[in-house]
Design a protein that fits this description.
mainly alpha
Length: about 90
């Protein structure tokens, strides 16, 4: 264990800027590919995927368990698409 770790402010700002700019310029393409080309979700399936992914991440954060937002949403999108058509996710 590292007793104390100091991250310079410029590193935090650079990482936040890179993530923000990446989402701003490429986020639409990622969501379009995931929601249209890979799984072809309907609006209610997208809502179910986002809601369940958010709930799972909130529970994990409360419990202190590390979780990836990208992986959670991707797998919930896949799961909603794989649900039988007679039931909803």
């Amino acid at each position: 264990m590292i007793p104390e770790l100091e991250i310079p402010l410029w590193v935090i700002l650079a990482a936040a800027s890179a993530m923000g700019l990446g989402t701003f310029f490429g986020g639409y393409k990622v969501i379009k590919t995931l929601g249209v080309k890979i799984t072809r979700l309907k609006p209610y399936q997208g809502f179910a995927a986002e809601t369940s992914g958010g709930i799972m991440l909130a529970i994990f954060a409360t419990l202190g368990i590390p979780a990836s937002t990208t992986h959670a949403i991707t797998w919930y999108n896949y799961g909603c698409r794989r649900c039988p058509k007679k039931t909803s996710c």
